[in-house]
Each structure stands twice: as C-alpha cells, then as structure tokens.
Write a structure and sequence with these properties.
By secondary structure, the chain is mostly helical. Helices cover 82% and strands 0% of the residues.
Length: 439
C-alpha cells in the first residue's frame, strides 16, 4: 500500500485476493452449496411436515420466488453504480449510494409487508392455508431479502467475490438451521416461514460489517449520488416478473383448486422437478465474472451461448432419469406416502429446462438492450394465467400441460430475439469489425 493512492490500494489488494481464490469457481461452489442446502431443507420439510403443511410451505416458497426473482434487478442496479465508483476508488460515493438505496428499498419492503398483512386473510382462504400468519411472515422475509440484495450488489460491484460467496452460504446455512429447529418444535408451515424470516435478517446483518470495513462510515455531508429508480430496469423487472409467475403458476393454481392433501403431494414432486432450474443456474453462476467483464455485444452473446449450452447438456441426464425412475426418486427422497404424483416428475423437469433457458435469455438480452421478446413473453404469461383461471375443472394434467406450453413459447421468443441480435452483430463485424468493442 502506498501513500499516493490510499483509496485504491485496498481494492487492488482485495482484487488480488479474489483472483488467488478464483471468482469463477468460488461463486459456483458457494451458489451451488446454497442451492444444495435450500433443496435439502425442502426435502427435510417434506419428511417433517404432513402433506397439507408441506403444500402450504410450497405456496410460501412460490410467493418468495415470485417476489424475489424480479427484485433481483435491484442487485443489477447496485452493481452498475458501485462498479464505476469502485474503479475510481471513490468509497464515499459508494457509502452514500448504499445508504440511500437501502432506505428506498426498505420502504418498498415495508409496503409489501403492510399489503401482505391486509390481504393475508383473503389469500389464506383462497389457497387453503388455514392462517394468515405464514403469509405475513414470508412477506417480512422478502423485505429483509431486498435489502440483503442491495448489499450483495455493492459487494459484486466492488469485486469482493469472497464476501459475496460467503453471503450465499450464510443465508443457506442459517435458513436450514432456523427452519429445522422451528419446525422440529412446532411442526407447521408457519414455523418454517419464521425460520426463513430469521435467516434473511441474519444474512443481511452479516454483510453489513464487511461493507462498512471496505467503504467506511457515511461521510457528513454525504456526497450527492444518483439513486436508480426501479423504472430504469423496467424491462428486466417486467420480464423477470413474468418468468417468476411462469415458474410458480402451477403451485398457485393447484393449491387453489385441489384439496390440501393432494396439493401437498404435487408440491413434493414439483419440488424435485424444479430443482433443475436452480441447479442449472448455480452452474451458470460460474460465468458471472465473465459476463460482468464481457466486451460489447459479441462478448455477451458468446457467454449467453455457453450458458445455454451448459443448461442443455445438464438437461439430457435429468430428463432421462425423471422419466425412467420417477417413483423410485420420489419414494427415496420423501418416503412411500409422497409418491402419488410421481408420474409428473418428467414433464415438470422438461418445463424447468425451458424455463432455465428463458431466464438466461431474459438476463443476457436485456444486458444487450434487446426487448423484442418482451411483448411475446407478456402475452404468454397472460395467456397462461387465463388458461389456468377460466377452465372450470383444473386437473393437475391440465395445469402441467399449460405450464409446459407457456415455457416452450417463452423460450422460442428468446431464441428468435437472440438470433436477430446475432445477425446484427455479424453484420457489424462484416462492415467494420466493431463487434468486439461494441458500443
């Protein structure tokens, strides 16, 4: 460390440490461990809770995912702002940004909790939950997760991949620990929701000392910094909201339309099938540093192509196993009393493969400024909602068929937009070879 550059030197030292560890492997391992822990928790809950409570837990997880997936754009906004100031060593602006953006995000979380408290009595009746309490608790967990996402964006923008990876692991470990303890004592979905809430709060608090030690206290007076409006990432947020709906539409529909016990049976099988979505994204997370540093549209297209190829490579054995031995898988994981819906495992895995490709496409195409896919995606999500609402007898087969069709259409829209972008890039390279540098 030198006296001539006191602010940049710590970041350079941190960056050297991150390179020594290897951010690609580090993030992939951490995110993978987090996915394994969360998946293991769901399986444990499947054995600890009865079918009705497990169905309710599946609904709570669906609510969490429905809100958190589009809200992940908060992290992208934090990364974009923080990275520029970190490269210049301007920690004062990072501190001011984090403080103001956290306050704004906290307001959003507070509004969400109030809305949940007001609507919980109605929602608990519609989805056969039995009590408004777990819905309010999961909303509070989402509120803490939102401000945790701000901190993670700051860590990524400062290229502090070690603490970022530790954040994922901390969240997974505390979620498993608190949820298992609470459910072991109280044996209800409400107890599981309370464990998720405590975990989110602890995980957020765990990131605070690291950021404070890197950027220092908020200076007085605080420098003026631009705070992103959520409308700035409107396309990304809208796309992720539709994808989040498509990822959880089956659980919402089935929980509202079939008996609680039967819904719990379906959630058990759906949890196993949808695991592909999360594990494939965990593998793709290894490409996050490359995606952050990709130069121009050509670089991003290459990363997107590699990520999609990896997903399809993982899909082949997953689909094969799900169709060949579905009952054995469900019985091994949950026991013989949860194998009622095992035959739906293969179709759910296929649906998850298409959803993974759609999710990747939305993120990479948005980064390249493409939005041709958005109207088709919005129409698909709306049509899926109508198809699930307007059919009088919503059997499980009907729900699964609608979900698969919607995911196939959405993935096709992404592919069409990606091919259009590829043609634009090839034309640019042919005209002047500017594809690598990109505007």
């Amino acid at each position: 460390m030198t006296k001539t550059d006191p602010e940049v030197a710590p970041d350079q030292e941190a960056a050297t440490s991150e390179r020594a560890v290897g951010p690609h492997a580090l993030l992939a391992i951490a995110f993978g461990l987090a996915m394994v822990a969360n998946f293991a928790l769901t399986l444990l809950m499947g054995r600890m809770l009865d079918s009705s409570n497990f169905g309710t837990l599946g609904l709570l997880v669906a609510i969490f995912l429905f809100c958190s997936m589009p809200a992940s754009a908060i992290s992208v906004m934090a990364v974009t702002r923080t990275a520029a100031w970190a490269s210049a060593g301007d920690t004062a602006k990072i501190a001011a940004f984090k403080s103001r953006f956290t306050r704004r995000t906290s307001m959003v979380g507070g509004i969400l909790v109030i809305a949940a408290a007001l609507s919980a009595p109605v929602l608990s009746d519609v989805f056969k939950v039995g009590s408004p309490a777990p819905i309010v608790l999961i909303a509070a967990a989402i509120a803490f997760w939102l401000i945790l996402t701000v901190n993670r964006g700051v860590l990524q923008g400062m290229r502090l991949f070690n603490p970022l990876a530790a954040s994922f692991v901390t969240e997974a470990v505390t979620r498993v620990g608190f949820a298992v303890i609470f459910v072991w004592v109280w044996r209800s979905a409400t107890a599981a929701a309370a464990g998720i809430l405590v975990s989110a709060a602890v995980s957020w608090l765990a990131t605070v000392p690291t950021i404070r030690s890197r950027v220092g206290p908020l200076p007085k007076p605080a420098p003026e910094v631009p705070i992103p409006r959520f409308g700035e990432a409107g396309t990304v947020i809208a796309a992720l909201a539709v994808i989040a709906w498509m990822q959880n539409a089956d659980v919402f529909a089935i929980k509202a339309s079939v008996p609680a016990w039967e819904a719990g049976q379906y959630v058990a099988t759906a949890t196993l099938g949808k695991a592909f979505f999360f594990f494939s994204l965990a593998a793709v997370t290894a490409m996050l540093p490359d995606a952050s540093e990709a130069r121009g549209r050509a670089g991003r297209l290459r990363i997107a192509g590699r990520a999609s190829g990896l997903v399809m490579l993982m899909a082949i054995p997953a689909i094969a196993v799900a169709f060949v031995v579905p009952e054995w898988i469900v019985t091994t994981v949950y026991g013989p009393d949860r194998a009622e819906m095992a035959t739906w495992l293969g179709p759910i895995v296929i649906s998850s493969v298409f959803l993974s490709l759609t999710y990747l496409g939305a993120n990479y195409l948005a980064a390249m400024g493409r939005s041709l896919y958005m109207p088709i995606l919005a129409l698909t999500g709306s049509a899926e909602l109508l198809a699930l609402l307007t059919v009088g007898e919503r059997s499980i087969g009907h729900v699964v068929a609608v979900v698969i069709a919607a995911n196939v259409i959405a993935t096709s829209a992404m592919a069409i937009d990606a091919m259009a972008e590829s043609r634009v890039e090839l034309k640019a390279q042919g005209l002047g070879g500017f594809g690598e540098s990109g505007a």
